[in-house]
Amino acid sequence: MFGQDKETRFGDEFGNEMPRREFLRKATSAAAVGAMGMGMATMIGCAPKEEGTAADTPATGGGGAGAGGAGAAGGGALAEATPSELAQQYANSRFAFRSDWLGEPTTIAETDIAETLEADIVVVGVGHAGSALTRRAAELGAHVIAVEGQSEDAFSAFGSDIGHLNSAWQKAQGIPDVDPTDFMEVCQLLSANRIQPDLLHAYATRSGEMFDWLLEVMTTEQQAALRTCDWPVAQGYQYVKGAMRAYPGTAKMDMSNEVINTSILLRAQHKKAIEVGAQIWYGHMGEYLEKSEGGRVSAVIVSDVDGTCKRITAAKAVVLAAGDYAGNAEMFTTLVQEAAELNPGVALQGMGRDGSGVKMGLWAGGKMEPGTRAAMGANVFSPASPVSAASLWLNAKGERFCNEGYGHPFIAGVQGARQPFGPQYAVWDSNWREMLRNQMTGHGDPMFMDDAFMESVEPTLQQALDAGADGLEAGTLMASYKVYAAQSIEELAGYLGIDPNAFAASIERYNSMCQAGKDTDYAKTPELLFPVDTPPFYASVGIHEPGGRILVTLGGLFVDGSHRVIGDDFNPIDGLYAVGNNSGGRFPLHYSAPIHGMSLGMANTLGYVLGEEMAAL
What we know:
- The protein is α+β, with helices and mostly antiparallel strands.
- The protein has helices at residues 20-26, 30-33, 77-80, 83-94, 128-139, 168-172, 180-190, 197-215, 220-224, 262-275, 329-335, 337-342, 356-363, 409-416, 432-437, 451-467, 489-496, 500-516, 598-616, and strands spanning 57-58, 113-124, 144-148, 161-162, 227-228, 240-241, 244-245, 251-252, 279-282, 284-291, 297-304, 309-320, 392-394, 422-428, 472-475, 480-486, 537-544, 564-566, 572-578.
- The two termini are 35 Å apart.
């Protein structure tokens, strides 16, 4: 799915692993297995730094003169503060309602640093973005050292879909070209003009090139195993629905596919990167960044599973690519403000990383991108079904509450998350094939609309009809639900346990607008108005509950159009970059992607492009 939706964590149906640092410290303990992904990450135990023994200054302030950080020439309170004081000032000034999540780095005594390595570029994390950057920069002659918290044997990645535009791979399948300008306009509108325009431009214009480059590390068999989302479609299908637009052609790698999945792909990326000269140090975590006297980020202190520490100096740049912070409940609940306010009193935690890469950037004087910050889950809810987002949605009272066809569930579902906790319903009738063939493509909607998919839906609906009042258990990536079917609206209401009068009235009102071809209540586009008037009638029931299911966060460090991390005065910190889910600027409100897999596609593309830029420094 969901794009980055996934980089690496514990072993569930998504092929994930627990957060890297926790994995390295606890994987050998049987008792830790049951707690995978739930514990908060802590610093690996290198010896504490003794005052005055480090060669460089730990990067706990902003950049130096001309770099725009808090430690710029002229000093000031932040420049003079100790790491502890600075961390507290940062927390108090930006996140006053919770000040304990940031903490401070465990700085290392010079005598406890076992060795110093030198590189042009140091990359912290080799998920999707970090792998692409490491390989591309090394191909172009840069000396790259990358550190990765997972062991080489256990390495795995999140995600299954790589959304991109205008690749030769797509052209070979007859997928029509996309005008990058049109695509950028759609993305800018969906993000209320908050997406970083230079990052968007790089993705829109170069993602096809990036994907064809990715294919170079795949075997012929692996390439043949790729699937294509939202293509082919029924003749005459329109990807434009009212004010919304979607795009076909995403490459899908099912997580269960043993021929090709994103874990296999990234291992191949690593192998290729090493072949062209990069070094990848598995089982090593970044602890904190160091700065030179001029304020430039100049080195990373890393530690391995045994606590042995190394310094890796960066002649050109340090790039943070260590993933998101969904696995850190304190960070998530503090930083994803919209989700926290929609789920009061709940410690929100998802499938992602522990936030260590983001913390390193903040300790170095960086800023989080302005919030509210995006996540996959907790701030959206839609009553999933086996058919389409275009069906009628009702809340626990049996009342319609929004435009169900407004893009896809990650957009329409914003209103679902603002309804009372409890059941929500999607309702449709026997004409589901017509509705399905005219759905809006996008996240949360079915990815395939061919005859084979239609045939796979029919048995599910028949089983629901046969189950009667018991209903049929089903589910999606983000939620489980039950499907019910009946020959009358009244009977279906009885199965659902909903007020039959309110249920019937909502359906009657909706049908009248479908027949008129105009949704005067919520402006659903006429192409997606399908009445509920021909038996059998169907309904799926999903439970909107506090927290819900959360995958990853998407809001990261504030960066400019070149991925340079921004400091307190809105100028870049010299020598420090962020990419992937360590980077903000990609999905600033929520996962409003008009193409499946845009998160992974963007991570790979921007890592690829940044690798070129790094090599040219």
